[in-house]
Design goal:
By secondary structure, the protein is α+β, with helices and mostly antiparallel strands. Among the domains are: 26-184, DNA methylase specificity domains (Adenine-n6-DNA-methyltransferase TaqI, Chain A, domain 2), CATH 3.90.220; 275-411, Alpha-Beta Complex (Adenine-n6-DNA-methyltransferase TaqI, Chain A, domain 2), CATH 3.90.220.20. The protein is 34% helix and 21% strand. It has a five-stranded mixed β-sheet with strand order 3-10-7-8-5. Strands 15-22-19-20-17 form a five-stranded mixed β-sheet. The chain has a three-stranded antiparallel β-sheet with strand order 1-11-2.
Length: 467
């Protein structure tokens, strides 16, 4: 792209001539105040080509399920601040050719502007987006795309001021076209982005490591308790099994017995999950009684689990006082409790790393029964479709404790479940440690973000100095 004024590809109304202040380095209209020395306010469309997106007609199946990733709101809400390597939905070239959608290059920066405003993602490869986004193709000679990403992330509370609407908030194009960005020269943009990216890269590495650890745990569960591979191997003459301790393997049966769930290893049982572990539900104290809230006791809702990338609960958005806790039937549940959201929606899962009470949207499986937490988490995950099949309801689907408790589970010998917990439990411990490290890194990044972007902390070469 040349240094010439990039062509804006949105059409519609002209940019507004008004001014709305942002929090840090973004504003609608040029702010009257002078920026930090070395920084300059630019109309964003002078630094990057503005693009919007479109949704090809759903009435034409041939427009969909092609090879072109298409970013929708769910992609953004689930990957806020990240680089997207793939998307939930894809469109075909025919869909692009017969709509206003455009394929944009890798490193295009996307901001959701309607319904769910303020989510930021970067294209990791050529992609298109829905009309819910405004997108910028940065001029690499003037604007580092990573600097723009962090600038947009730093303005999360500004978007409410930039938005309008009664049914739902939308940032309209007259405001988008008037966006002004405060930025230093390109080399300092890159240095700022390098520091912040190093933190994000470590967070992403932790996320990928956790995916691998969780996949390992799921694979061991399936091998031992779904496919019964160690028992089958021993029955076929094997003298050991790779993931199983030798004494436990030596004690395994070599035959199967019929059960209501089909053949299972001889000596193992099938019983209702409610007999294998203690099941509890929760509740919500009156939100109109301030004395119940903002105390020392955690209280979790399904919404707290909806934002988790890994199945470990480290914190909650709300807490209860002693008086509030007394109103919740679950009481304070111990660490290691496995939570399953039972409605709106069914299926969020986590092991608690904190003591917490729960609201009425959960089924809690307490530790200390015949099945350890790592088994319960993987059992609920593997058989989630079967669990959902026992839900009912007209307004929304819900599985009650009454319907959940009779669900059958295989209960192996204690030696086998103990070994499973001793092997898989540390994998989840490492997931927890990675999550805690990522939280610390994210807090450091978020604290540095406005200081670096405003010039309060200046970057010289590879060192940051206060000015």
């Amino acid at each position: 792209m040349s240094r010439a004024h990039p062509v804006t590809k949105t059409g519609g109304r002209l940019a507004t001539t008004g001014h709305i202040a942002g929090d840090c380095v973004l504003a609608v209209g040029k702010p009257p105040n002078e920026p930090s020395p070395g920084w300059e306010w630019h109309r964003l469309t002078d630094l990057a080509r503005l693009e919007t997106g479109h949704t090809p007609s759903r009435k034409h199946p041939e427009y969909w399920d092609g090879g072109i990733p298409w970013i929708g709101i769910r992609d953004a809400t689930g990957n806020h601040g990240c680089v997207l390597d793939d998307t939930i939905q894809h469109v075909s070239q025919e869909g692009i050719d017969n709509s206003s959608a455009r394929v944009l290059p890798a490193n295009s920066v996307c901001l959701s502007r309607t319904a769910s405003v303020g989510y930021v993602v970067v294209m990791g490869k050529p992609m298109s987006t829905s009309q819910d986004f405004v997108n910028w193709v940065c001029n690499p000679e003037r604007l580092d795309y990573r600097y723009l990403k962090y600038a947009l992330l730093a303005e999360q509370t500004s978007y409410a001021r930039f938005s309008h609407g009664t049914t739902h908030q939308t940032i309209y194009f007259p405001e988008v076209k008037a966006f002004h960005l405060c930025a230093p020269k390109l080399d300092e943009q890159k240095a700022i982005a390098d520091i912040l990216s190093d933190l994000d890269d470590k967070i992403e590495l932790n996320r990928r490591m956790n995916r691998t650890l969780e996949q390992m745990a799921a694979a061991i569960f399936k091998a031992w308790f779904v496919d019964f591979e160690p028992v089958r191997a021993k029955a076929s003459g094997a003298t050991s099994f790779p993931s199983m301790p030798q004494p436990t393997f030596d004690a395994l049966p070599t035959t199967f017995a019929d059960s209501e769930l089909g053949p299972i290893p001889d000596g193992w049982e099938v019983m209702p999950i409610g007999d294998a572990v203690q099941i509890k539900g929760g509740g919500t104290p009156s939100t109109k009684t301030p004395d119940f809230w903002d105390g020392p006791h955690h209280w979790v809702t399904p919404k707290d689990l909806s934002g988790l990338s890994d199945p470990i609960l480290l914190d909650t958005s709300r807490c209860l006082t002693d008086a509030g806790l007394a109103k919740v039937s679950s009481g304070l549940l111990p660490r290691g409790t496995v939570l399953l959201s039972s409605r709106a929606p069914i299926g969020y899962l986590a092991i608690t790393a904190i003591e917490t009470a729960i609201n009425q949207g959960f089924i809690a499986m307490l530790p200390g029964g015949s099945l350890p937490p790592s088994y319960l988490l993987n059992w609920a995950s593997y058989y989630l479709d079967d669990i959902k099949g026992n839900a009912n309801g007209t307004t929304f689907q819900e599985i009650s404790k009454k319907n959940f408790r009779p669900l059958r589970a295989i209960v192996p010998s204690p030696e086998v479940t103990d070994d499973f917990q001793s092997i898989v439990g540390p994998l989840y411990d490492q997931v927890r440690l990675n999550m805690q490290e990522s939280t610390t890194l994210a807090e450091a990044r978020d604290a540095l973000l406005p200081k670096l972007l405003s010039g309060e902390v200046r970057v010289l070469s590879d060192k940051a100095v206060m000015v």
